[in-house]
Amino acid sequence: MGTQQYDIAIIGGGPVGATLALALRGSKLKVCVLEARPANTASKDARALALSYGSRLLLARLGIWDALQDISNIRTIHISQKQSFGRTMLHAEELNVPELGYVLPYPALQDALTDALQHTLSPSPSPASGRGKRDSAGEGSGKLQFITGASVTQLQGELDHAVIGYQQDGVEHTLHTRLAVVADGGKLLAQQYPPEVHDYGQSALITHITCSAPQADTAFERFTPQGPLALLPFKVGYELVWTAPHQRAQEMLPWNDARFLHELQQHFGDRVGEFLTAGKRTCFPLGLRRAPQQTPMPHTVLLGNAAQTMHPVAGQGFNMGLRDAWELAQEILDAAPEALGTEAMLAAYRSQRRTDREAGIRFTDGLVRLFSNDLPLVSAGRAAALTALDCLPFVKKFVAKRMMFGANG
Ligand SMILES: Cc1cc2nc3c(=O)[nH]c(=O)nc-3n(C[C@H](O)[C@H](O)[C@H](O)COP(=O)(O)OP(=O)(O)OC[C@H]3O[C@@H](n4cnc5c(N)ncnc54)[C@H](O)[C@@H]3O)c2cc1C
Prior knowledge:
Blueprint: E1 4-11, H1 15-23, E2 30-35, E3 48-52, H2 53-61, E4 72-74, E5 76-81, E6 87-91, E7 101-105, H3 106-119, E8 122-124, E9 134-139, E10 142-148, E11 150-157, E12 162-168, E13 171-182, E14 196-211, E15 218-223, E16 229-234, E17 237-245, H4 246-252, H5 257-268, E18 275-278, E19 282-290, E20 300-302, E21 308-309, H6 317-334, H7 343-371, H8 376-391, H9 393-405
Parallel strand pairs: 1-2, 1-13, 2-10, 5-15, 13-20
Antiparallel strand pairs: 3-7, 4-7, 5-6, 8-9, 9-10, 11-12, 12-13, 14-17, 14-18, 14-19, 15-16, 16-17, 19-21
Helix pairs in contact: 1-3, 1-6, 6-7
Protein backbone atom coordinates (compact mmCIF):
# COMPACT_ATOMS: atom_id res chain seq x y z
CA MET A 1 0.00 0.00 0.00
CA GLY A 2 1.35 3.47 -0.90
CA THR A 3 1.48 6.37 1.54
CA GLN A 4 -1.98 7.70 2.28
CA GLN A 5 -2.63 11.35 1.32
CA TYR A 6 -5.05 13.69 3.11
CA ASP A 7 -5.88 17.36 2.93
CA ILE A 8 -6.25 17.53 6.71
CA ALA A 9 -5.20 15.04 9.40
CA ILE A 10 -6.47 15.71 12.92
CA ILE A 11 -4.38 14.07 15.65
CA GLY A 12 -6.73 13.38 18.58
CA GLY A 13 -10.48 12.85 18.39
CA GLY A 14 -11.11 14.42 21.81
CA PRO A 15 -13.69 17.21 22.20
CA VAL A 16 -11.65 19.76 20.25
CA GLY A 17 -10.39 17.52 17.44
CA ALA A 18 -13.85 16.00 16.93
CA THR A 19 -15.41 19.47 16.82
CA LEU A 20 -13.05 20.55 14.06
CA ALA A 21 -13.83 17.40 12.04
CA LEU A 22 -17.55 18.10 12.40
CA ALA A 23 -17.10 21.71 11.34
CA LEU A 24 -15.47 20.46 8.12
CA ARG A 25 -18.28 18.03 7.28
CA GLY A 26 -19.66 18.66 3.84
CA SER A 27 -16.51 20.30 2.50
CA LYS A 28 -14.70 18.84 -0.47
CA LEU A 29 -11.66 18.08 1.64
CA LYS A 30 -10.24 14.67 2.43
CA VAL A 31 -10.01 14.65 6.23
CA CYS A 32 -8.95 12.02 8.74
CA VAL A 33 -9.14 11.91 12.53
CA LEU A 34 -6.54 9.73 14.24
CA GLU A 35 -7.68 8.78 17.74
CA ALA A 36 -5.60 6.65 20.12
CA ARG A 37 -8.63 5.25 21.97
CA PRO A 38 -9.86 1.96 20.48
CA ALA A 39 -13.25 1.96 18.74
CA ASN A 40 -16.36 1.83 20.95
CA THR A 41 -14.47 2.58 24.16
CA ALA A 42 -16.26 5.18 26.19
CA SER A 43 -14.12 7.88 27.77
CA LYS A 44 -13.73 7.31 31.52
CA ASP A 45 -12.67 10.88 32.20
CA ALA A 46 -14.34 11.93 35.45
CA ARG A 47 -14.30 15.70 34.97
CA ALA A 48 -17.44 17.73 34.43
CA LEU A 49 -17.27 20.67 32.06
CA ALA A 50 -18.94 24.04 32.38
CA LEU A 51 -19.81 25.19 28.88
CA SER A 52 -20.47 28.86 28.22
CA TYR A 53 -23.55 30.19 26.44
CA GLY A 54 -21.23 31.09 23.54
CA SER A 55 -20.16 27.44 23.28
CA ARG A 56 -23.79 26.39 23.18
CA LEU A 57 -24.34 28.62 20.16
CA LEU A 58 -21.32 27.11 18.36
CA LEU A 59 -22.36 23.54 19.19
CA ALA A 60 -25.88 24.31 17.97
CA ARG A 61 -24.47 25.59 14.66
CA LEU A 62 -22.62 22.28 14.35
CA GLY A 63 -25.87 20.39 15.00
CA ILE A 64 -24.55 18.85 18.24
CA TRP A 65 -26.37 20.77 20.92
CA ASP A 66 -29.69 18.90 20.72
CA ALA A 67 -27.88 15.56 20.94
CA LEU A 68 -26.27 16.38 24.28
CA GLN A 69 -27.86 14.49 27.13
CA ASP A 70 -27.58 15.06 30.86
CA ILE A 71 -27.09 18.81 30.86
CA SER A 72 -27.81 21.14 33.76
CA ASN A 73 -28.21 24.90 33.41
CA ILE A 74 -26.34 27.70 35.16
CA ARG A 75 -28.45 30.86 35.46
CA THR A 76 -26.69 32.45 38.42
CA ILE A 77 -23.04 32.48 39.48
CA HIS A 78 -22.22 33.36 43.07
CA ILE A 79 -18.57 34.46 43.51
CA SER A 80 -17.15 34.92 46.99
CA GLN A 81 -13.96 34.86 48.99
CA LYS A 82 -13.46 32.79 52.12
CA GLN A 83 -13.25 34.78 55.37
CA SER A 84 -14.23 38.05 53.75
CA PHE A 85 -17.37 40.10 53.07
CA GLY A 86 -16.95 40.70 49.32
CA ARG A 87 -19.11 38.86 46.84
CA THR A 88 -20.51 39.20 43.31
CA MET A 89 -23.55 37.66 41.68
CA LEU A 90 -23.94 37.19 37.93
CA HIS A 91 -27.48 36.61 36.63
CA ALA A 92 -28.43 35.45 33.15
CA GLU A 93 -31.29 37.97 32.87
CA GLU A 94 -28.96 40.93 33.58
CA LEU A 95 -26.95 39.84 30.56
CA ASN A 96 -29.96 39.14 28.34
CA VAL A 97 -29.10 35.48 27.82
CA PRO A 98 -31.31 32.51 28.76
CA GLU A 99 -28.46 30.82 30.65
CA LEU A 100 -24.93 31.79 31.61
CA GLY A 101 -23.68 28.28 31.02
CA TYR A 102 -24.25 24.55 31.25
CA VAL A 103 -22.71 21.61 33.09
CA LEU A 104 -22.19 18.18 31.63
CA PRO A 105 -19.78 15.26 32.12
CA TYR A 106 -16.77 15.14 29.76
CA PRO A 107 -17.77 11.62 28.51
CA ALA A 108 -21.29 12.86 27.60
CA LEU A 109 -19.79 15.57 25.40
CA GLN A 110 -17.23 13.17 23.94
CA ASP A 111 -19.88 10.53 23.17
CA ALA A 112 -22.18 13.03 21.46
CA LEU A 113 -19.34 14.32 19.28
CA THR A 114 -18.14 10.81 18.42
CA ASP A 115 -21.72 9.71 17.60
CA ALA A 116 -22.15 12.73 15.36
CA LEU A 117 -18.91 11.88 13.58
CA GLN A 118 -19.96 8.27 13.15
CA HIS A 119 -23.48 9.18 12.12
CA THR A 120 -22.28 10.22 8.71
CA LEU A 121 -19.71 7.45 8.43
CA SER A 122 -20.12 4.22 6.54
CA PRO A 123 -17.76 1.45 7.61
CA SER A 124 -15.05 0.41 5.23
CA PRO A 125 -12.57 -2.28 6.18
CA SER A 126 -9.22 -1.20 7.55
CA PRO A 127 -6.47 -2.10 5.10
CA ALA A 128 -4.26 -2.77 8.09
CA SER A 129 -6.42 -5.11 10.10
CA GLY A 130 -9.49 -5.84 8.03
CA ARG A 131 -11.54 -5.34 11.19
CA GLY A 132 -13.37 -2.13 10.30
CA LYS A 133 -11.52 0.30 12.57
CA ARG A 134 -11.37 2.80 9.80
CA ASP A 135 -14.77 4.37 9.23
CA SER A 136 -15.26 6.76 6.38
CA ALA A 137 -17.91 9.14 5.17
CA GLY A 138 -18.21 10.84 1.83
CA GLU A 139 -20.01 14.16 1.66
CA GLY A 140 -19.77 16.46 -1.32
CA SER A 141 -16.77 15.08 -3.09
CA GLY A 142 -14.76 15.15 0.15
CA LYS A 143 -14.22 12.30 2.54
CA LEU A 144 -13.92 11.94 6.30
CA GLN A 145 -12.16 9.01 7.93
CA PHE A 146 -12.21 8.28 11.64
CA ILE A 147 -9.31 5.99 12.47
CA THR A 148 -9.49 4.62 16.02
CA GLY A 149 -6.86 2.75 18.00
CA ALA A 150 -4.37 4.88 16.06
CA SER A 151 -1.64 6.32 18.24
CA VAL A 152 0.43 8.99 16.53
CA THR A 153 4.12 8.66 17.31
CA GLN A 154 5.73 11.04 14.82
CA LEU A 155 5.02 14.31 13.11
CA GLN A 156 7.32 16.18 10.80
CA GLY A 157 6.63 19.38 8.85
CA GLU A 158 8.11 19.41 5.33
CA LEU A 159 8.22 22.07 2.64
CA ASP A 160 4.78 21.37 1.15
CA HIS A 161 3.18 18.84 3.50
CA ALA A 162 3.45 17.20 6.92
CA VAL A 163 4.31 13.54 7.52
CA ILE A 164 2.54 11.62 10.29
CA GLY A 165 3.58 8.23 11.63
CA TYR A 166 1.10 6.23 13.69
CA GLN A 167 0.67 2.75 15.13
CA GLN A 168 -2.47 0.69 14.91
CA ASP A 169 -2.52 -2.86 16.26
CA GLY A 170 1.27 -2.81 16.44
CA VAL A 171 1.54 -1.94 12.75
CA GLU A 172 3.31 1.26 11.67
CA HIS A 173 1.60 3.54 9.15
CA THR A 174 2.63 6.76 7.46
CA LEU A 175 0.44 9.41 5.93
CA HIS A 176 1.02 12.73 4.21
CA THR A 177 -1.23 15.71 4.79
CA ARG A 178 -1.36 19.33 3.71
CA LEU A 179 -2.36 20.35 7.22
CA ALA A 180 -1.64 18.39 10.41
CA VAL A 181 -3.82 19.55 13.30
CA VAL A 182 -2.46 18.54 16.70
CA ALA A 183 -5.40 18.19 19.10
CA ASP A 184 -3.92 15.49 21.32
CA GLY A 185 -4.08 17.41 24.61
CA GLY A 186 -0.40 18.39 24.42
CA LYS A 187 1.93 15.39 24.63
CA LEU A 188 3.09 14.65 21.09
CA LEU A 189 5.23 17.75 20.52
CA ALA A 190 6.02 18.59 24.16
CA GLN A 191 9.62 17.36 23.97
CA GLN A 192 10.41 18.82 20.60
CA TYR A 193 8.71 22.17 21.31
CA PRO A 194 8.52 22.48 25.12
CA PRO A 195 5.55 24.54 26.32
CA GLU A 196 5.95 27.41 28.77
CA VAL A 197 4.82 25.86 32.05
CA HIS A 198 3.67 27.46 35.25
CA ASP A 199 2.91 25.03 38.06
CA TYR A 200 0.45 26.69 40.47
CA GLY A 201 1.32 24.03 43.03
CA GLN A 202 -2.36 23.03 43.00
CA SER A 203 -4.38 19.94 42.13
CA ALA A 204 -8.13 19.74 41.60
CA LEU A 205 -10.04 17.10 43.45
CA ILE A 206 -13.34 16.42 41.72
CA THR A 207 -16.42 14.50 42.72
CA HIS A 208 -20.23 14.68 42.70
CA ILE A 209 -21.86 15.78 45.95
CA THR A 210 -25.40 16.17 47.24
CA CYS A 211 -26.55 18.59 49.91
CA SER A 212 -29.67 19.51 51.91
CA ALA A 213 -30.42 22.91 50.31
CA PRO A 214 -29.24 23.00 46.69
CA GLN A 215 -29.99 26.27 44.90
CA ALA A 216 -31.50 25.68 41.49
CA ASP A 217 -29.31 26.58 38.50
CA THR A 218 -26.76 28.35 40.71
CA ALA A 219 -23.01 27.79 40.49
CA PHE A 220 -20.67 28.83 43.28
CA GLU A 221 -17.07 29.93 42.91
CA ARG A 222 -15.34 30.45 46.25
CA PHE A 223 -11.80 31.73 46.40
CA THR A 224 -9.68 30.47 49.28
CA PRO A 225 -5.95 30.85 50.04
CA GLN A 226 -5.56 27.12 49.18
CA GLY A 227 -7.07 27.72 45.75
CA PRO A 228 -10.57 28.14 44.30
CA LEU A 229 -13.47 25.81 45.03
CA ALA A 230 -16.35 25.49 42.55
CA LEU A 231 -19.77 23.90 42.90
CA LEU A 232 -21.37 23.39 39.49
CA PRO A 233 -25.07 22.48 39.59
CA PHE A 234 -25.62 19.03 38.13
CA LYS A 235 -28.75 16.89 38.47
CA VAL A 236 -29.80 16.81 42.12
CA GLY A 237 -26.45 17.96 43.48
CA TYR A 238 -23.23 19.59 42.39
CA GLU A 239 -20.04 18.72 40.60
CA LEU A 240 -17.35 19.77 43.05
CA VAL A 241 -13.96 21.09 41.92
CA TRP A 242 -11.90 21.54 45.09
CA THR A 243 -8.45 22.98 44.50
CA ALA A 244 -5.70 22.41 47.04
CA PRO A 245 -1.91 22.18 47.17
CA HIS A 246 -0.74 18.95 45.48
CA GLN A 247 0.17 17.13 48.68
CA ARG A 248 -2.99 18.18 50.50
CA ALA A 249 -5.14 16.99 47.58
CA GLN A 250 -3.41 13.58 47.67
CA GLU A 251 -4.08 13.37 51.41
CA MET A 252 -7.76 14.19 50.85
CA LEU A 253 -8.30 11.39 48.32
CA PRO A 254 -8.44 8.48 50.82
CA TRP A 255 -10.52 10.29 53.49
CA ASN A 256 -13.71 8.45 54.30
CA ASP A 257 -16.93 10.17 53.22
CA ALA A 258 -17.78 11.48 56.70
CA ARG A 259 -14.41 13.19 57.05
CA PHE A 260 -14.51 14.50 53.48
CA LEU A 261 -18.00 16.00 53.89
CA HIS A 262 -17.08 17.51 57.25
CA GLU A 263 -13.93 19.17 55.86
CA LEU A 264 -15.86 20.41 52.83
CA GLN A 265 -18.47 21.96 55.11
CA GLN A 266 -15.75 23.78 57.06
CA HIS A 267 -14.14 24.95 53.86
CA PHE A 268 -17.25 26.08 51.96
CA GLY A 269 -19.71 26.98 54.70
CA ASP A 270 -23.45 26.31 54.70
CA ARG A 271 -24.73 28.23 51.67
CA VAL A 272 -26.20 25.03 50.22
CA GLY A 273 -27.09 23.51 53.57
CA GLU A 274 -25.47 20.35 54.83
CA PHE A 275 -23.31 18.24 52.52
CA LEU A 276 -24.85 14.76 52.48
CA THR A 277 -23.03 12.44 50.06
CA ALA A 278 -19.86 12.41 48.03
CA GLY A 279 -19.10 10.23 45.00
CA LYS A 280 -15.84 8.76 43.77
CA ARG A 281 -12.97 11.24 43.97
CA THR A 282 -10.38 11.92 41.26
CA CYS A 283 -7.42 14.25 41.26
CA PHE A 284 -5.94 16.34 38.42
CA PRO A 285 -2.68 18.32 38.76
CA LEU A 286 -3.24 21.88 37.51
CA GLY A 287 -0.94 24.27 35.75
CA LEU A 288 -0.64 26.61 32.82
CA ARG A 289 0.97 25.06 29.75
CA ARG A 290 1.24 27.34 26.80
CA ALA A 291 2.83 26.37 23.51
CA PRO A 292 5.06 29.29 22.50
CA GLN A 293 3.97 28.85 18.89
CA GLN A 294 0.57 27.65 17.73
CA THR A 295 2.11 26.71 14.38
CA PRO A 296 5.54 25.33 15.38
CA MET A 297 6.50 23.79 12.03
CA PRO A 298 5.36 23.89 8.41
CA HIS A 299 1.85 22.61 7.66
CA THR A 300 1.12 22.09 11.36
CA VAL A 301 -1.17 23.80 13.87
CA LEU A 302 -1.85 23.14 17.57
CA LEU A 303 -5.41 23.29 18.85
CA GLY A 304 -7.21 23.14 22.21
CA ASN A 305 -5.20 21.84 25.16
CA ALA A 306 -2.24 21.14 22.86
CA ALA A 307 -1.99 24.91 22.33
CA GLN A 308 -2.96 26.04 25.84
CA THR A 309 -3.87 24.10 28.97
CA MET A 310 -5.36 26.36 31.61
CA HIS A 311 -6.40 26.18 35.23
CA PRO A 312 -10.13 25.31 35.36
CA VAL A 313 -10.93 28.27 37.67
CA ALA A 314 -12.71 30.23 34.95
CA GLY A 315 -13.94 27.18 33.01
CA GLN A 316 -12.16 28.43 29.90
CA GLY A 317 -10.28 25.34 28.61
CA PHE A 318 -12.75 23.57 26.35
CA ASN A 319 -14.64 26.78 25.64
CA MET A 320 -11.42 28.26 24.26
CA GLY A 321 -10.56 25.04 22.39
CA LEU A 322 -13.99 25.09 20.77
CA ARG A 323 -13.35 28.62 19.50
CA ASP A 324 -9.91 27.45 18.23
CA ALA A 325 -11.62 24.66 16.28
CA TRP A 326 -14.41 26.87 14.95
CA GLU A 327 -12.09 29.61 13.75
CA LEU A 328 -9.59 27.18 12.21
CA ALA A 329 -12.48 25.57 10.31
CA GLN A 330 -13.50 29.00 8.96
CA GLU A 331 -9.89 29.70 7.82
CA ILE A 332 -9.76 26.29 6.12
CA LEU A 333 -13.13 26.67 4.42
CA ASP A 334 -12.31 30.21 3.25
CA ALA A 335 -8.84 29.30 1.96
CA ALA A 336 -8.22 28.79 -1.74
CA PRO A 337 -7.46 25.08 -2.35
CA GLU A 338 -3.78 25.77 -3.06
CA ALA A 339 -3.43 27.81 0.17
CA LEU A 340 -4.34 24.96 2.51
CA GLY A 341 -1.65 24.52 5.16
CA THR A 342 0.59 27.27 3.76
CA GLU A 343 2.35 29.78 5.97
CA ALA A 344 -0.06 32.47 4.74
CA MET A 345 -3.06 30.46 5.93
CA LEU A 346 -1.42 29.60 9.25
CA ALA A 347 -0.47 33.27 9.79
CA ALA A 348 -4.10 34.29 9.19
CA TYR A 349 -5.22 31.74 11.80
CA ARG A 350 -2.64 32.93 14.35
CA SER A 351 -3.69 36.50 13.86
CA GLN A 352 -7.39 35.61 14.18
CA ARG A 353 -6.80 33.77 17.47
CA ARG A 354 -4.17 36.03 19.06
CA THR A 355 -6.39 38.39 21.06
CA ASP A 356 -8.83 35.79 22.37
CA ARG A 357 -6.08 33.32 23.26
CA GLU A 358 -3.89 35.85 25.05
CA ALA A 359 -6.83 37.41 26.88
CA GLY A 360 -8.16 34.01 28.01
CA ILE A 361 -4.76 32.88 29.30
CA ARG A 362 -4.08 36.21 31.07
CA PHE A 363 -7.54 36.32 32.64
CA THR A 364 -7.35 32.75 33.99
CA ASP A 365 -3.74 33.05 35.15
CA GLY A 366 -4.45 36.41 36.80
CA LEU A 367 -7.45 35.02 38.70
CA VAL A 368 -5.44 32.11 40.12
CA ARG A 369 -2.49 34.29 41.15
CA LEU A 370 -4.61 37.09 42.58
CA PHE A 371 -6.89 34.90 44.66
CA SER A 372 -4.60 32.06 45.80
CA ASN A 373 -2.90 33.79 48.71
CA ASP A 374 -3.86 35.14 52.12
CA LEU A 375 -1.89 38.39 52.27
CA PRO A 376 -4.15 40.65 54.39
CA LEU A 377 -3.90 43.75 52.19
CA VAL A 378 -4.48 41.81 49.00
CA SER A 379 -7.41 40.01 50.61
CA ALA A 380 -9.05 43.30 51.60
CA GLY A 381 -8.48 44.67 48.09
CA ARG A 382 -10.07 41.57 46.57
CA ALA A 383 -13.10 41.86 48.83
CA ALA A 384 -13.54 45.48 47.82
CA ALA A 385 -13.11 44.55 44.14
CA LEU A 386 -15.77 41.83 44.35
CA THR A 387 -18.20 44.24 45.98
CA ALA A 388 -17.38 46.98 43.47
CA LEU A 389 -17.89 44.54 40.60
CA ASP A 390 -21.33 43.75 41.99
CA CYS A 391 -22.24 47.45 41.93
CA LEU A 392 -20.86 48.21 38.46
CA PRO A 393 -23.17 46.63 35.88
CA PHE A 394 -21.06 47.70 32.89
CA VAL A 395 -17.89 46.13 34.26
CA LYS A 396 -19.82 43.04 35.29
CA LYS A 397 -21.30 42.73 31.81
CA PHE A 398 -17.85 43.10 30.26
CA VAL A 399 -16.35 40.33 32.43
CA ALA A 400 -19.31 38.00 31.92
CA LYS A 401 -19.31 38.52 28.14
CA ARG A 402 -15.58 37.72 28.00
CA MET A 403 -16.26 34.49 29.88
CA MET A 404 -19.19 33.56 27.64
CA PHE A 405 -17.94 34.55 24.20
CA GLY A 406 -14.17 35.19 24.48
CA ALA A 407 -12.37 38.34 23.43
CA ASN A 408 -13.41 38.12 19.76
CA GLY A 409 -17.03 38.44 20.85
C1 LIG B 1 -10.45 19.29 36.61
C2 LIG B 1 -10.71 19.96 35.30
C3 LIG B 1 -11.87 20.67 35.11
C4 LIG B 1 -12.10 21.33 33.89
N1 LIG B 1 -13.25 22.05 33.76
C5 LIG B 1 -13.47 22.72 32.61
C6 LIG B 1 -14.65 23.48 32.45
O1 LIG B 1 -15.47 23.59 33.37
N2 LIG B 1 -14.87 24.12 31.27
C7 LIG B 1 -13.97 24.04 30.24
O2 LIG B 1 -14.21 24.66 29.18
N3 LIG B 1 -12.84 23.32 30.35
C8 LIG B 1 -12.56 22.66 31.51
N4 LIG B 1 -11.44 21.92 31.63
C9 LIG B 1 -10.51 21.84 30.48
C10 LIG B 1 -10.99 20.83 29.42
O3 LIG B 1 -11.13 19.55 30.00
C11 LIG B 1 -9.99 20.78 28.27
O4 LIG B 1 -9.76 22.08 27.80
C12 LIG B 1 -10.48 19.91 27.11
O5 LIG B 1 -10.64 18.58 27.52
C13 LIG B 1 -9.48 19.98 25.96
O6 LIG B 1 -9.90 19.14 24.91
P1 LIG B 1 -8.86 18.62 23.83
O7 LIG B 1 -9.67 17.88 22.81
O8 LIG B 1 -7.97 19.72 23.39
O9 LIG B 1 -7.89 17.61 24.63
P2 LIG B 1 -8.23 16.25 25.39
O10 LIG B 1 -9.52 16.36 26.10
O11 LIG B 1 -7.00 15.95 26.18
O12 LIG B 1 -8.37 15.15 24.23
C14 LIG B 1 -7.22 14.70 23.51
C15 LIG B 1 -7.61 13.47 22.67
O13 LIG B 1 -6.46 13.09 21.89
C16 LIG B 1 -6.26 11.67 22.00
N5 LIG B 1 -4.80 11.44 21.87
C17 LIG B 1 -3.85 11.78 22.78
N6 LIG B 1 -2.63 11.45 22.30
C18 LIG B 1 -2.83 10.93 21.06
C19 LIG B 1 -1.94 10.39 20.05
N7 LIG B 1 -0.62 10.38 20.23
N8 LIG B 1 -2.48 9.91 18.91
C20 LIG B 1 -3.83 9.94 18.71
N9 LIG B 1 -4.72 10.42 19.64
C21 LIG B 1 -4.21 10.91 20.78
C22 LIG B 1 -6.80 11.31 23.39
O14 LIG B 1 -7.17 9.94 23.46
C23 LIG B 1 -8.01 12.26 23.49
O15 LIG B 1 -9.17 11.67 22.93
C24 LIG B 1 -11.16 21.26 32.83
C25 LIG B 1 -9.99 20.52 33.02
C26 LIG B 1 -9.76 19.89 34.24
C27 LIG B 1 -8.48 19.11 34.41
